[in-house]
Structure formats: C-alpha cells, structure tokens
Write a structure and sequence with these properties.
Blueprint (H helix, E strand, L loop, with lengths): L8 H22 L1 H8 L5 H52 L6 H25 L6 H14 L6 H26 L7 H20 L4 H26 L11 H10 L3
C-alpha cells in the first residue's frame, strides 16, 4: 500500500472515498437483499441494529480518534527532531568558524558536504523508505577532525568542549531521525481499523429502509469513515507523501553556510 503515498493528497482522499463508498453501495445493492431475506421476521430490527451500531461506533470512533492524535503527535515530534538537527548543524558550523587553521578550513567543507548530502541524497531516499548509510562516513570525518583538535588556550578549550557537546547531541537527534523513517501505526492496528470499518459497513447493510435513503445515509457514513482513515494514513509516515516533513530546515542552514 506504500505506492499510495506517491499520489497527491486530494487524489488519495478521492481514492479512499471511492473505495469505501463504492464498496458500501455495492453491499446495499447486492448483499442487503440477502440480509432482508434472513432477518425479515425479526421485529424491531432497526432498533436492535441501531443499538449494536451505536456501541460499535463508540469504541471504533475512540480508536480512530486516538490513532489520529498519535499519528499527528508522531509527525510533530519528528519535525521537532529534524529542526533540532538542523539547529545543531548551524551552531557547530558557527563554532568552527572561530577555530584556528588548519582545523577550520578542513572541517567547514565537511559540514557543508554533510548538509548537502542530507538535502540532495538522504532525503529523497527517506521519502522512499530507504535509510542511507552514506551519512555515517561523513559524520565520522567531522568527528575525526574535532577529536584531533588540541586547544591551545583556555578560550579555545571552552569553545571546543561546547562544540563537542553539540556534535554529540546532533548525532543523537540524527539517530532519532533515521529511526523515525519507518515509524508509524503498527500493522496490527491497521488490521483492527480495517476489521472495524468492515463491521461498521456490515451493520449498516442490515438496516431496513428505502433503497435511496439507504444509499444516501450509508454513503455519507462511508465517506466520513474514509476521510478519517485517509487522514491517519497520510500522517502515518513522517517522510512519505505530500503531507510530510521536508528538508527545508537543512536547506535554510545550507544557504547560510554558503554566504561569505
């Protein structure tokens, strides 16, 4: 189903709506008559189905609401992680400009190269769910230069200690960003969502009413159901789809790095 992330948000919402509403209407037209045949002697059928449907929707609606909040929270947390990494890159770059030669001229290009790599190479791969290992070598090169520097004065020692601390923090948030590439709603939860949606539609098919009214009401319910599930889906993968986190924070830092 990951190919769905290649669609625009509007197209994806339309696809979800078409599948849910179309499936519901097909059931109303072709499966509902069998339910009426089996349940026609049950007095107060709509009242019974209504009670069961209300109870089911209460629990299912709560589940969808919690999943929507969790997906949004995950998206927000990953965005904060991305902004933190970009912020550390900017701070480290500014700190290195105060280093003496040759450490300064050796390290600044490495930081610019790492930033360029994240924007132009790592990010497109993240959008496809691929975690690139090429960034490790670039991080190691920066680390080697920092660890190889020997402060000559007390001021340099303080700046160097601060830079090493920032580099360690950046490495941690970078690791968190990489781990979040595959983050999202667990497959088992998606299974529960699909089963819950099918039960909702199944109960709607059991209602006894005029055909046009049945098509209208079931279509409205299916459309809203598809909208909520589509919302969870588009926010589920932080780096995939049209509603995703881009490398804008890194691009802004990279632009400032190239200003003399």
């Amino acid at each position: 189903m990951l190919w769905l992330y290649d669609m625009s948000t509007i197209s994806l919402a339309g696809w979800f709506a078409a599948v849910f509403v179309g499936f519901t209407w097909l059931g109303v037209l072709f499966i509902r008559p069998f339910f009426r045949l089996v349940l026609r002697r049950q007095p107060g059928l709509n009242d019974i189905v209504g009670v069961i449907l209300s109870s089911h929707c209460a629990f299912f609606g709560l589940l969808l609401g919690l999943l929507a909040v969790a997906a949004y929270q995950n998206l927000s947390d990953v965005e904060k992680t991305v902004n933190r990494e970009a912020g550390y890159l900017r701070s480290i770059y500014r700190s290195i400009t105060d280093y003496p030669e040759p450490t300064r001229s050796q390290t600044l290009p490495l930081i610019r190269e790492y930033t360029r790599f994240v924007i132009e190479e790592a990010w497109p791969q993240q959008r496809r769910g691929i975690i690139s290992s090429d960034g490790v070598a670039r991080m190691n090169a920066i680390q080697a230069n920092l660890f190889g520097f020997e402060p000559a004065t007390k001021a340099q020692e303080m700046v160097h200690a601060q830079t090493l601390g920032q580099f360690a923090e950046m490495a941690e948030v970078r690791r968190a960003r990489i781990q979040s590439v595959d983050s999202g709603v667990p497959p088992m939860m998606w299974y529960v969502v699909i089963v819950g949606a099918l039960i909702t539609i199944l109960l709607v098919w059991m209602l006894d009413m005029k055909l046009l009214s049945h098509l209208l009401l079931s279509g409205v319910l299916a459309f809203f159901l598809s909208t909520v599930i589509c919302l969870i889906f588009v926010m589920d993968k932080p780096f995939r789809g049209e509603i995703s986190i881009g490398p804008d924070a890194y691009a802004a830092v990279y632009k400032r790095m190239n200003i003399p």
